[in-house]
């Protein structure tokens, strides 16, 4: 769903052969795969073991690729975060995951500011204004159902929806903002069941399931998606995401 965001950022920074890119919270590796397809040497860091395993599978050779297509050289996928000294190896650092808790992201960005070479581009991404993000109405279901466990159990990334939040985050970490943009990233699914499964796969509803039960969460997600169903049964939510480019 965030491919338009990734491609817009990579075009703006001219990511390609010779680029050394680090993805913080790389998830299942799609953004890294797109960068590697442009010729970049990529490293991904991900704390979630299942997502990291999926990312590793994505970078393995596939029979349908054919003999002429090979995985990008210099690809590394690791758990946790690099040490401060290791950030010297990159010229682009991305933090695309809009659900990454600020409390966890800020120390990593501060380490980049200290360890990366001067001029290194650091990209932060977050949700746009709630009124421009249809998905925000559905994701509020997760916040409401998770409330019995307290707000700390939720950690959803809509907190980065203020106009200057990403800029402030970059400055707090010791980085210099150097441009920003907005990208349309619609969420589309072929049917309601696919939409429910897709939203659940983000992990943003895990706390809601723990606080209630799976059946209740499924039911309320389905009801919240009703306004976004189309005549052919598909589901489409229009969203805008922000990004900020900062420099070390």
UniProtKB/TrEMBL annotation:
GO molecular function list: S-adenosylmethionine-dependent methyltransferase activity
**Pfam families the record matches:** Methyltransf_11 (PF08241)
* Classification via Gene3D superfamilies: Vaccinia Virus protein VP39 (3.40.50.150)
Coiled-coil intervals, chain numbering: none
Indicate the transmembrane segments per the record: none
Per UniProt, residues of the Methyltransferase type domain are 22-97
Q: What is this protein called?
A: Methyltransferase type 11 domain-containing protein
Organism, scientific name: Actinacidiphila rubida
